[in-house]
Amino acid sequence: MELCVAICDDEQIITDDLKLRLLEYKPDFQIDVFHSGKNLLENPNKYDIIFLDIEMPEMSGMEVATELRNANYNGHLIFLTSHTEFMPDAFKVKAFRFLRKPINNEDFQETIKEAEKEIINNKKLIVYSTDGIKLINLNDLICFETIKYNTYLYTKDGSIETRKSMREWMEILGTEHFIQVHKSFGIALRYIDTIGADYIIMRYTEMKVPVSRRKIGNVKKAFFEYIKKYALFT
Question: What predicted TM-score, i.e. pTM, was given to this entire model?
Fold first, then answer.
């Protein structure tokens, strides 16, 4: 799932640096840069994460954050600052984290990973099923299977029949947290329990998912890379 990120800071050197760090961390982040809080406020709700400088002319970052929360923005606010005396006020606007300037890469990596973890775990998926429209937690999707012309989503709460194809579901879900392992099966990497010679056993289900021989190597590689990066997600 692609995440949308906004960077709002009046210093070009800061926005350039932070944008570069974000793209190095994940090239498919959708990033917009603002040098004024007023411009950010024109359309803030498209962003999953907003990096916000506290000390800006015209309108401070704390004032921008207050406006965002008053407008029901419920994304992650990460403040950028050279001072820590603003921290008590940050609780009032439900700030996720502070990053001190100049930005320390270790602090940045920890912050973006924790923010991404929370966002992914709380993402909702609108599913147009054969029984109507359903809203499920993305975190509850274990695997999915194509049978004839329909695809079944298997979640922690049961199965949902949909008319979308495997290809369509892979386009929606992306390949960072999900992988197609067979022409008829896709799985959530986080719920792999056991990888056999030509099958995978998924957590929370009795299903033994077949894996194509030509895909087994890529599946193992994707799983181990996922564990290294997202071990705390599971």
Answer: 0.70
